[in-house]
Specification:
It is a single chain. This protein has about 400 residues and is of the alpha+beta class. It has helices at about 20-30, 40-45, 60-70, 120-125, 150-155, 160-170, 170-185, 190-200, 210-220, 225-235, 240, 250-260, 265-275, 280, 285-300, 305-315, 315-330, 335-345, 360-375, 385-390; strands at about 35-40, 55-60, 75-80, 85-90, 95-100, 100-105, 110-115, 135, 140. The strands form 2 sheets. Strands 3-4-5-2-1-8-9 form a 7-stranded mixed beta sheet. Strands 6-7 form a two-stranded antiparallel sheet. The longest helix is centred in the last third of the chain and has 17 residues, at about 360-375. It is elongated.
Length: about 400
Amino acid sequence: MDRPTAPTLDPQTPFLRDGAAQALCQTLEDGGHRALFVGGCVRNAVMGLPASDLDISTDALPDRVVALATAAGFRAVPTGIDHGTITVVVDDTPLEVTTFRRDVATDGRRAVVAFSKDVKEDALRRDFTMNALYADRYGAITDPLGGMPDALARYVRFIEDAGARIREDYLRTLRYFRFHATYADPQMGWDTDALDGIASNLDGLETLSAERVGSEVLKLLSVPDPSPAVAVMDQTGVLARILPGAVPDLLAPVVHLEGLVQTAPDPLLRLAAIGGVDVSDRLRLSRKDSRTFDSIREHCASPLGAQSLGHIAGKQAGLGAALLRSAMANQPLNAEDVVAVVQGADTPFPISAKDLPDLSGPVLGERLQALKADWLASNLTKSKNDLLAP
């Protein structure tokens, strides 16, 4: 593929104008060390995207970082000192500084690291070429592994051998699909070495904790359109490993409907569209998310109108159920239906026990239940007088 020429960072890049970050980098440099921005902030700047997390790497050992920061009047917090990370607070701004590292041993979930003075060794322990870019406080880019062309082309590629990178941390399989869905130029296609490495290491996915898998899946399903990535996950066998029984066919229609009615991406709706066996447990969803997921799946087959769906399921689950129902029926959802779901969620049932003074106990409960069923069947249009009329 054609590889663009690497640019230098625009001096107006926000993190290059961040006073706290500049002060910390200068402090490390004045102490005789390298101080480089790394990872997401540099990658996104190269791509012309807003910067994500601001991370700084250095050849200074952690104790040296603490000493230099303290001498400069900053507060140093040893948040991850065993792994080389110090949080330095400059003018109330927390900044993470991590010493260059190299992997000594990995087991597919975590790594034993040693500190290094070589930025290339630090780069080699990262996952994708586009994440192994560094920039000093003036914007001069250091590209020890030649990842700049991939970043410019929006081509997601593992560093060196894909299988080896995956065996260092099997979560990188899922990160690959998220990064592809987030950053890749669709015209560049999929990296065959990456897909081969993923397909050859499926067993490793079973060693990951449900929390890590769930977090990564929800991040993937939060991107504007994850459907092409999820389809390839299905083709490579990844989807069946992490969500047995999941079927991606309804995901693209749901994403399309979200766009038509201009609702924000809902990862729980998209997860409900995919389905699977024991989804909440396999992804260790929070109780709130699990209830929303279950409610969408439960109510998507309901014949009730949009207002009634909103009332019984709430705004998020009601809208999710309405969208999923439309996708299943291959029918559009009108913007008016979205408004109706929200209105229904905010509409209280107009009948209470005091409206039925002659009834009590189980008889009262049954009567209230019947009246509510009548009200829901009317799509919340019946008034109190309509419902109580003989």
